Records
---
Amino acid sequence: MNKEILNYVKNEGWELTHDVDALAFAAEKTANLFSDVTPMKVIKFMLGDEPIGMWSHSYGFHTRDGRAMREFFSVKYNEYE
């Protein structure tokens, strides 16, 4: 998972300023909570604001579910040690 995250960030031309292990941990925990979501989809949503189907965005804004996913991810990211 870490390598996938690093490749995604590199392909987007970004510089990674976050802990890749914490990102992977939070993505896996978040994907387990939300059905039909892969950890990599979570990463793309969190880092690149890429929609996950119809439920994460509506008219360019985050839906209630999208905001819940962001909040849960943030909590798990900060829990990682």
---
Amino acid sequence: MTRIAVLTAYVSDGTVPEDHLYEIEHDTADYYFFTNNADIKVPAGWNKRLLHPCSADKVFENRRAGKIPKQLAHLLLPDYDYYIWHDYFHFVKEDPVKIVEMLGDADAGLFKHPKGRSWREEMMAAAAREHRQKVDFTLHTLEHFRIPLSSQLWELSCFVRKNNKKTNRCFNLWNELTTMLTSRDQVTFIAAAHLEPIKIFTLPGTALSYGGNNNLVPHKGPCFHSTGRGR
């Protein structure tokens, strides 16, 4: 039997938004919500797991905490064959079994970024939401690693991935690069996937509603808050 885990997270110094977790429609997966809010009540079928934000980067401490289940599901929940990740303002619409079957022999399924930027353009577009020294260090490091500017940019607010050695190595590196460099994980994923290559299936549609959205793990609406956002 194929075991699938759906994961999401919300990490904040305040309360969780009124746009709460959705009611589960498909019982073909196990659902996990990671949060630092011990008092929040979750709908039936959701498993709540507490996160404890702690980082030397106090500005983006919450955002970085939210990356832990996003990138390291294979360490937190090792007994699954597949993981479906989505940021808090998404929901699973399609049967998770049908979603993972789309991968075939690919290691992960991702949505293309609708803007078609290079990793350098993406980093500069997000520079105002990052420490300047982190921006400079990220640019220098990716140039040192010779990450091609032609590398595909992915929208990573939701994705599906396998629990296998190759994918786990890539996602371990992604977590390390996100910790060392910028916490804008679209940029660091490009480097991780270049240095520890995985086979990627392009999911149909887009991850966020401004690009048309998708019928697999749609975005709930116009709010674009990121999981694990900073203060």
---
Amino acid sequence: MVDLGGKSLHDDFIIEMLEEAILDEFEEKDYAIFEQQLLDLNLEPPEFRKFLNRIILSKSKSFQDKISVILKDQQQNLLEEAFRRAKKRYKAKMTLRFMSFEQDEVGE
């Protein structure tokens, strides 16, 4: 496997897959909860899983299965990286949406 500065191509693929799934499934409140209760807290896997299950309970079965596989493989770090990337993209999308709205309002 090719190493990309500590991450393999496999890890990068998993991160991208999770990032897309998070963007599809998460809403604004989910990002806030994940960041406040899980991100960078170095929780033990059972505790991390308990908090995460509260967030993903209302998500699709497919999303829950993806997360379950990642946690079963003890790749919590990949999930956190995917979340960081998804959150950045989500914020950028919301900023662009707001700027577009503001531009439309000023143009009228």
---
Amino acid sequence: MPDLQKFKITALSAANVNVPRAAIEGQICDSTTGAVLHDFTGANALTFPGVLTTLTAAQRQVLVERLATWLLMVKGGFE
């Protein structure tokens, strides 16, 4: 796996863009017991990109960092 170096994200002003909306559903379960810990199905589904407004600034930063590294790998042909 290639190493990412000289990685930097510079905050810019907000942008208004049209993106596809999507419903995100799933359950988070205990891997040992199978018990449902959080149910995000049906009425509890998350709607993207609307769910982004529910994140804290720190959570949005983590999202950008994870997305940025993935984008760099995709554009570099490693994903």
